[in-house]
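thread from #wetlab-drylab

HS: before we spend reagent money on co-crystallization trials with phosphoric acid mono(formamide)ester, can we at least see a predicted complex? here's what I'd submit
DV: go for it
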Amino acid sequence: MDNYITLADIDNLQELIEEALQLKKENTAAEIGKGKTLGMLFFNPSLRTRLSTEKAAKLLGMEVMVMNADKDGWALEFEDGAVMDSTKAEHIKEAAAVLSEYCDIIAVRAFPELKDKEKDEAELVIRGFKKYASVPVVNLESATGHPLQALTDAITISELKKTKKPKVVLTWAPHPKALPQSVPNSFAEIMQKSDVDFVIANPEGYDLNPEITQNVPVTHNQEEALKNADFVYVKNWSSYTAYGQQPKVKGSWTFNEHKLKITNNAKVMHCLPVRRNVVIADEVLDSYNSVVIQQAGNRTFAAQAVLRRLLEE
Ligand code: CP
């Protein structure tokens, strides 16, 4: 593995999942990262990604440097050929090259602005780092994807599934703020690479990018989708077609006990942070069916498996 920017960087998903589960079982420190440094740059907030990736790196013996790039760093210019006579003080060409002098792996979080679809889909930040860094680059959630979260999700389903081919439903849920499509995009991608019966339920106006969902069945009837579900992944996202907006939705899409009862006693997943009683009701989050804490715990082993692959190169 040269970088971990999209799920296409994984050559054998099943092998990587098994490696992560083995790391979880062993839960021991390793030496492979000794003398190596992970540099993490956050242009947006984080709890799980920041701490689980730091823990993963340390379990591999690495040193870790973290920077809140939005607050502490120079404002970066990502456009090639830009005349830098305004607020941007440093170009990605120098920033990525200099970071490569200090770090053996660079990891970056940069959310979309959700204003200009074309600009967000250009993934200027993560692709800028990939282009100008001379060390591997890891995506800690970019404008269109969250591949470390998706790997974690696949690991969690793999360790909890009771049937060879479980039914997995990704369902939209409400949220007061317009959120990116990164998490559902990557989840939809990784489920298409997995041996599952996968369905997406979302209100009209919230269909994800069809280039990502491809042939996955998409329904606007949440309750119909939930029938016989073994896993329900609840997540909000803003509209892809009316880009970044939140069109009005008919009916209630909050995932509550009534919806859970329609499923096959499903395990309920969410990437966190979750808005209680808006996205998922207390009665579900506090129930035996919720696996959100186990899922978040698995973030460490997903990151450890990925970082180890990058260190092995
Ligand atoms: N799920 C996730 O990426 O959590 P954080 O935003 O807290 O890192």
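DV: The chain has a mean pLDDT of 97.
HS: ok that's useful, forwarding to the group
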